[in-house]
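Reminder: ligand-aware prediction takes two inputs, not one.
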Amino acid sequence: MSNQHHDPACIFCKIVRGDIPSARVLETDHAVAFLDINPVNRGHVLLVPKAHHATLADLPDHLAAETASLVPRLARAIQAATGADGLNLVVNNGQVAGQTVFHGHWHLIPRFVDDPVNWPWPHDEYSGDELGQMQFRIERELRGGSTDG
Ligand code: AMP
Ligand code: ZN
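Here is what comes back for the chain with zinc ion:
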C-alpha cells in the first residue's frame, strides 16, 4: 500500500497494518473484515478496504468492487455462525449519516427476529414531477464518469 493511501492517525489504517489488534475474520490483498468492537448485534462485522479513503464515495471503482465482492461470502458465514435470521448491509457515508471513522467501510449486521434494532427508517413520498426531476439530476451527474476514468 502506498503512503498516499495510509493515514497514520486513522484507527482502521492502524488495524489494517496490525498496529492495533482486531478480531479478523477475513483478509485479502485489498480488504480486511473484522468484528466491530461495539456491535449492534453480536457478529457485527466491518469490511474495510486496506487503502485509506475517507468515505465510500471516495473509493476507486476497482477497490470498491473487490471489497464489495466479499459481501455475499461474509454474509453467509455471519448468518451461519450467529444463527441470524437476516442481515443488514449498511454504509454510513459522512458525519450526517452517522459516520464516525473516516476510512470508508461496510457494516454487516446480523439480524434476529424481535431484536431491539430500530429499523427500517421512515419513508417519504415524491409529489408532482419531483421523482422525474431527481432521476434526471442523478443521471446527469452519473454521465460525468467513474473514479477509474
Ligand atoms: P461508522 O459509525 O460507520 O463510522 O462506524 C465505525 C464503527 O467502528 C463503529 O461501529 C465502532 O464500533 C467501530 N470501531 C471503532 N473502533 C474500533 C476498533 N478498534 N475495533 C473494531 N471496531 C471499531
Ligand atoms: Zn484509514
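The two ends are 21 Å apart (CA to CA). The pocket of adenosine monophosphate (ligand 1) is lined by residues 11, 22, 36-38, 46, 92, 98-101 (CB under 6 Å). We will return to this case in the review session.
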